[in-house]
Design goal:
Its EC number is 2.7.11.1. It holds the Pfam family GerE. Residues 698-763 form the HTH luxR-type domain. This protein has 768 residues and is mainly α. Among the domains are: 2-158, P-loop containing nucleotide triphosphate hydrolases (Rossmann fold); 172-265; 269-346, Orthogonal Bundle (Arc Repressor Mutant, subunit A), CATH 1.10.10; 566-688; 702-762, Arc Repressor Mutant, subunit A, CATH 1.10.10. It has 38 helices and eight strands. The protein has a five-stranded parallel beta sheet with strand order 3-4-5-2-6, with helices on both faces. Strands 1-7-8 form a three-stranded mixed beta sheet. Helix 15 (348-368) crosses helix 17 (386-399) and helix 28 (582-595) packs antiparallel against helix 29 (602-618). It is globular, with a radius of gyration of 29 Å.
Length: 768
């Protein structure tokens, strides 16, 4: 069982790490001298565990951290770059080649990148590792693979099984294989202990399994139903037939296969079937998905929990504890065995289709509920399921399921636009559009989404081509709603290209036609008004921009949406800066940053931070301005938000010149690099630490809050936490979170203590 993530991007260890002292010393030493180290060995020998422990030990040598890239679930070589980008939180929104984007991101960083399970993508991993190491002098790469990458400068370190004793060995405690087996055995049966009576049996088990850690863990789980003597006898009889005493790679592979096969044989028929069906999942998954994908007449949903628990007890499935619930995972060797069994049963196509259908439903539900208070919950869920979305899209492409793939890729467009990389979203859309046989309704949606992705990337020609094709198809279908969306996207493209007159014309047309259609979509008018506000700012007309943003603030707060509210506040602040209202703009930007602090996305947070840099420069705080410019560079200049970036080029250059002249070149570079080295949460905290903020304005009148918000404010003043308030009001904690954020935003506060003080001032004093 594992829990969440440890600091530095590595998974936390829950089961004890046993032995490997010499190997750890060797690997950590190699990481000090070699820039690419590959741990090789058979499946189940412990390459990943050794790599993670070594990475943890050397993490302080890498100021920019350690990042784990899990590759076991990928089949497409082209996705290796995207997996690395995801691990690095690089959200590229340009049509640039992703390896170049990654190289630029890593160029001045001192970081360790752990590429786990490379053997099925050796060429792609080798090529990427070589290019990144050439571009980034401070980068080290630690890879695990069943075979070497054969990359330039690679140092290969073979990982052997744990040492094993003879049956007559006296000091069993001195063997790491025995120590590992005993640790896992007592986890399965706390009463189990090494005794004179079972010593030979334990030695026989460890020797028979050749010290392969995964095989030992699977065997230890059987002590719930077998004694050590029975276990030793069965393993001795079974594995002697394999002739695996040669200690060679092939023999150890056969030993592991036999150990896995034996664990499989000891499962009952329902457990075997579930093991096979679970192999379609990639990365982690939840019990709801298991029921949707694996349950049928043979495996009723009502008994699914007990079956999963049985496989966890047998160490076939791992249960991970996360703050928002439990997640399940299969080790890759066991998943491969299950996949082979699934194919032999003739069920692979049917189960993969159910997997695809389930994740299509998840994507569509997220799309429907994106605009509202649950958006951040959905964002976290989609991030968790990213590996399974990829697997579903790949299997859909393999099966030629054009409609399902186009619909899923379209439904995920908001996820890719927010979390990135947009290049991956566009890749899936383009591949989906290559399939024949999709109904025109799903194709026109995919074409429109592909056009939107191209706009975000700044690919004007690609966007125009896809939107023209979508417009023609929408005309043939008699689909006015898609036509309105295309008109809006053309206005958005014109805004990003710096053509505000053309943009305003298209956007107003989209606005009017949408009103005539009567379509129920609360977010679309908000998006149109955001683009109109930006276009009016570019045209030097701040008043209508502020009016549009004010309307958006009202709608977003009514629906509980935080992302578009953050954009509205940032764009309003830009208009206020153009009107000379610097302090009002600063207050709105702080609100925008607070809204994106929990789930920062590079676009809205980057815009707010960029504008705060302008304010710092105007206030005579050049160093703060330079740090904020560096932070903005990390958030959206490095991540390549080309379209939105184009709207601030002129003012950005002016701000940079101003702070550079004030600081001097050397001090400017140091401050800029400081900002560029901050993580998104650190950027948000720095931006909110506004040392030059003016004294707080007079308290807002209480009627600015709704009755429910005043009720929540009163409970905050009593010192209750959000969870306690939720219990008092019998509502969801997430609802209270939203109310508190609204109160903070309306009153321009940053802390709950300010709410309490404000509420105390609002209450009338005692009567005479």
């Amino acid at each position: 069982m594992t829990e969440g993530r440890a600091a530095g991007g590595l998974p936390a260890e829950i089961t004890r790490f046993i032995g490997r002292r010499r190997e750890l010393a060797d690997v950590t030493g190699l990481l000090g001298t070699a820039r690419l180290v590959t741990l090789t060995g058979v499946g189940g020998v412990g390459k990943t565990r050794l790599a993670l422990r070594a990475a943890h030990q050397v993490r302080r040598n890498f100021p920019d951290g350690v990042r784990l890239v899990e590759l076991s679930g990928l089949r497409e070589p082209g996705l290796v770059c995207h997996a690395v980008a995801h691990a690095l939180q690089v959200q590229d929104h340009t049509p640039r080649a992703l390896p170049g984007v990654l190289a630029g991101h890593l160029a001045d960083r001192e970081m360790l990148l752990v590429l786990d399970t490379c053997e099925h993508l050796v060429d792609a991993c080798a090529e990427l590792a070589e290019s990144l190491l050439q571009a980034a002098p401070g980068l080290r790469v630690l890879a695990t693979s069943r075979e070497p990458l054969n990359a330039a400068g690679e140092q290969v370190y073979p990982v052997a099984p744990l040492p094993v004793p003879d049956e007559d060995a006296e000091d069993l405690d001195g063997f790491d294989s025995v120590r590992l087996f005993m640790d896992r055995a007592t986890a399965a049966d706390p009463s189990f202990a090494l005794t004179p009576e079972n010593r030979r049996a334990v030695a026989r088990v460890c020797a028979g399994l050749e010290g392969i850690p995964l095989a030992l863990e699977l065997a230890a789980a059987r002590l719930r139903v077998l004694s050590a003597a029975e276990l030793g006898e069965r393993i001795g009889d079974r594995f002697q037939l394999l002739g695996t005493r040669g200690r060679t790679g092939p023999s150890r592979h056969r030993t592991l296969r036999a150990a896995v096969g034996w664990s499989h044989e000891l499962c009952d028929p329902a457990e075997k079937l579930l093991w096979a069906r679970l192999s379609v999942f990639v990365g982690t998954f939840d019990l709801t998905a298991v029921r949707k994908v694996c349950a049928d007449g043979k495996l009723p949903a009502a008994g699914m929990f007990d079956l999963v628990a049985a496989l966890v007890d047998k160490s076939v499935v791992v249960c991970e504890r996360h703050p928002d619930g439990s997640r399940l995972r299969m080790l890759e060797t066991l998943r491969e065995y299950g996949a082979e069994w699934l194919r032999s049963l003739g069920e692979e196509e049917a189960v993969r289709r159910r997997h695809r259908d389930h994740y299509l439903q998840v994507a569509q539900e997220a799309e429907r509920r994106w605009f509202g208070p649950e958006q951040e919950d959905w964002l976290r869920r989609l991030r968790r399921e990213h590996h399974n979305f990829r697997a579903a899209l790949e299997s859909g492409l393999d099966a030629g399921e054009a409609r399902a793939v186009q619909r899923m890729a379209t439904a995920l467009q908001l996820f890719w636009a927010t979390c990135g990389p947009v290049s991956e979203g566009r890749m899936w859309l383009e591949r989906a559009l290559e399939l024949d046989g999709a109904p025109p309704e799903s194709r026109v949606e995919a074409l429109t989404a592909a056009g939107a992705m191209a706009i975000l990337q700044g690919d004007r020609d690609g966007a125009a081509r896809r939107l023209a094709e979508a417009q023609a198809l929408a005309g043939r279908l008699g689909d006015p709603w898609t036509s309105v969306r295309i008109t809006y996207l053309r206005g958005l493209a014109a805004t990003f290209d710096g053509r505000p007159d053309e943009a305003i014309g298209s956007l107003r047309e989209a606005q009017e036609r949408f009103a005539d259609l009567g379509v129920q979509d609360a977010s679309f008018p908000v998006q149109v008004r955001l683009s109109l506000a930006t276009a009016h700012v570019l045209r030097g007309e701040p008043a209508p921009a502020i009016a549009y943003c004010r309307a958006n603030q009202r709608v977003c707060r009514e629906h509980g949406d935080r992302t578009l509210l953050a954009y509205a506040l940032a764009i309003r602040a830009r208009a206020e800066l153009a009107s000379g209202e610097v302090e009002r703009a600063a207050a709105h930007l702080r609100q925008a940053v607070r809204l994106r602090r929990a789930e920062p996305d590079p676009a809205s947070l980057g815009l707010a931070v960029e504008l705060l840099a302008w304010i710092a420069a105007a206030r005579g705080e050049p160093r703060r301005g330079a740090v904020l410019l560096g932070a903005a560079h990390r958030l959206w200049w490095t991540f390549g938000l080309a379209g939105l970036r184009n709207t601030v080029v002129s003012e950005h250059a002016q701000c940079e010149r101003r702070v550079r002249d004030a600081l001097g070149e050397s001090a400017f570079r140091r401050a800029h690099q400081e900002g560029a080295g901050l993580s998104p949460p650190q950027i948000a905290e720095y931006a909110l630490a506004d040392q030059a903020a003016p004294a707080p304005a007079a308290p807002a009148p209480p009627d600015r809050l709704t009755p429910r918000e005043r009720q929540v404010a009163a409970l905050v003043a009593e010192g209750l936490s959000n969870r306690q308030i939720a219990e008092r009001l019998t509502v969801a904690k997430r609802t209270v979170d939203t109310h508190v954020e609204h109160i903070l935003a309306k009153l321009d506060f940053t802390a709950r203590t300010q709410i309490a003080a404000w509420y105390a001032r609002q209450r009338p004093g005692p009567e005479g």
